[in-house]
Amino acid sequence: MLDAIRWDTDLIRRYDLAGPRYTSYPTAVQFHDGIGPFDLQHALRNSAQAKRALSLYVHLPFCAHICYYCGCNKVITKDRGRSAPYLQRLLREAELVSRHLDPGQVVEQLHFGGGTPTFLSHDELRQLMAGLRQHFHLLDDDTGDYSIEIDPREADWATMGLLRELGFNRVSLGVQDFDPAVQRAVNRLQSLEETRSIVEAARTLQFRSINIDLIYGLPLQNADSFARTVDEVIALQPDRLSVFNYAHLPERFPPQRRINAEDLPSPGVKLEMLQRTIEQLSAAGYRYIGMDHFALPDDELAIAQEEGTLQRNFQGYTTHGHCDLIGLGVSSISQIGDLYSQNSSDLTAYQNSLDNKELATRRGLHCNQDDRIRRAVIQQLICHFKLDFADIEGPFNIDFRGYFNEVWPRLQSCAADGLIRLDDRGIAITPAGRLLVRSVCMLFDHYLPLQSTQRFSRVI
């Protein structure tokens, strides 16, 4: 079993930098306009030839209400009719993509994100799932990991029953904070009772897993109020929790301009909130998986980490990193072999491409050998908090210390500070360093010195 994480205030203050979350390497910041539909088609054909399993992400951008903290690609509208034409294009995209795949490629993982996926009517959800089953080999025996993001204000027992009927067996609930003052400050009024009702429905309907999202660092939060929210969430007994650090970037995300910066908690208060949250979750039996994620010991993520098979991609931590990831919908990202590709982030441009029977791919990149090496290093560190040099040297035919000669002095400095243990065989992140694993990964990021870190959130 992994050692428990240890809180070290001095180490956190020294290494709490701004940097990528490494759902991919290279990160999406490196995507360029030189990647288009032809590149995606070629990668899909290679996937079909290899008959690799698939992970399918579907982006449904519509929300009836705006949450001021949100940085997602979304469309705020009260007009429920706007989803129908989007759904038409989405299924057209599914049909175009499926032409290049092998019918035997199984979709092991499916995720509906947004936006608010349950903005769709029940009939539309049925139509969408029927279309996906028509074009892709979806499992119908409940063995796949089929998940959907839920806004408890936009769902009820009937909705949960429909989702279970359609094949979903995992749900992720947005909560963020239960304090009414905080909810008003971010324009997301959501009661504990609404949330508990959806959790109870998911349990009764035998959904396999429930995740709850929280955010610390929102306006008007303090350590005591957030601790009450954490206690209330623990009482709901989710299988997983995601506890995100709010990044206030109003220059990038216009809705955040409605947040009064003077109401944001200080860095010191944010650290106290996180420290108390870790103590509460640890006492309740949750395991720190890494990068804001916690899970019960019998959860698949915790088991995969124990067994050394945990991976990370645009879906976050996953047990399906071996799958080719296909993203459908506006702004969605695909990761197929060594190709990253992203659809247009503009809704009109996305829909126009599909009206012309063309894929909406607008940007991305092909990984080179150096990218593959560094991706493997970062993957090991961020998923398992350790790296055996032999696991990199063998597959890539390199001498690790020689290849990363320029990084070595900084690794030695991290070891002297107690962030890592370093020897001739490998790197191990210390219990005190696990909260700061992104800072270690950043040492291996070839592109980071070439770009501004102002576009990234801080590590903690």
General description of the model:
The strands form five sheets. Strands 1, 4, 5, 6, 7, 8, 9, 10, 11 and 14 form a ten-stranded mixed β-sheet that branches. The chain has a three-stranded antiparallel β-sheet with strand order 15-16-17, with helices on one face. It is built from 16 helices and 20 strands. The chain starts with 8 loop residues before the first helix and ends in a 19-residue tail after the last helix. It has helices at 9-15, 37-50, 83-98, 122-135, 157-166, 180-186, 192-204, 223-236, 267-283, 300-307, 347-355, 369-384, 389-396, 400-403, 408-417, 437-441; strands at residues 54-60, 62-63, 75-76, 106-114, 137-138, 145-150, 170-176, 209-216, 240-245, 287-290, 293-295, 311-313, 316-318, 324-328, 333-336, 339-343, 361-366, 386-388, 420-422, 426-429. It is α/β, with parallel strands linked by helices and 460 residues long. The protein is globular, with a radius of gyration of 22 Å. 37% of the residues lie in helices and 20% in strands. Helix 3 runs parallel beside helix 4 (122-135), helix 4 (122-135) runs parallel beside helix 5 (157-166) and helix 8 (223-236) runs parallel beside helix 9 (267-283). The mean pLDDT is 94.
Backbone shape: globular
* Tally of individual helices: 16
Task: Determine the mean pLDDT.
Answer: 94
Q: Report the C-alpha radius of gyration, rounded.
A: 22 Å
Alpha-beta content class: alpha/beta
Query: What's the story with the biggest beta sheet?
Result: 10 strands, mixed
Number of strands: 20
Beta-strand fraction estimate: 15-25%
Helicity level, as a percent range? 25-40%
Regions with little confidence, pLDDT below 50 for 5+ residues: none
Distance between the termini: 24 Å
